Amino acid sequence: MTFYAVPLLASSDLRATSAFYRQLGFEELGAPVDEWDYLILGYGGGELHFVGPSLGARNPGSSFVYVDDADSTYAEWSVKADRAARFKPAGATNFGMRAFTMFDLDDNEIRVGSPPLPRHLAPTQ
Asked: Which pLDDT does position 1 carry in this prediction?
């Protein structure tokens, strides 16, 4: 059995959401947002899905995204991101990962993590 899950996140404006995430390197997948009031964004083989306002008001959601190197992803996204983005910097977690958190235009929480780098490869701080 194959199991694959993707988050369904809130968007008050799908065009603005698309622009926000495209700045980070995501690409639009699926039908145009005007057709279904739904947005699928791809990045590195993963997807984030967003539903527009046609289903009524929705609370912000959250997602955990795995990447190879959370520190380099944080460095890249924090430079490329829209000014509306809020970040909690990359750091070590109590469960043995490197992770950071980004909040998007609609206050969706995107947590991004990776296994810690081996000591001999870890960047000096």
From this structure: 86
Q: Which fold has domain 8-53+61-114?
A: 2,3-Dihydroxybiphenyl 1,2-Dioxygenase; domain 1 (3.10.180)
Q: Helix, strand, or coil here: 58?
A: coil
Give pairs for 117-120: CB < 8 Å, separation 24+.
Answer: 117/69, 117/71
Scored b (16 or more CB within 10 A) or e, 17-31 reads bbebbeebebeeeee
pLDDT digits (tens, 9 = 90+) for 1-49: 888 889 999 999 999 999 999 999 999 998 888 888 899 999 999 999 9
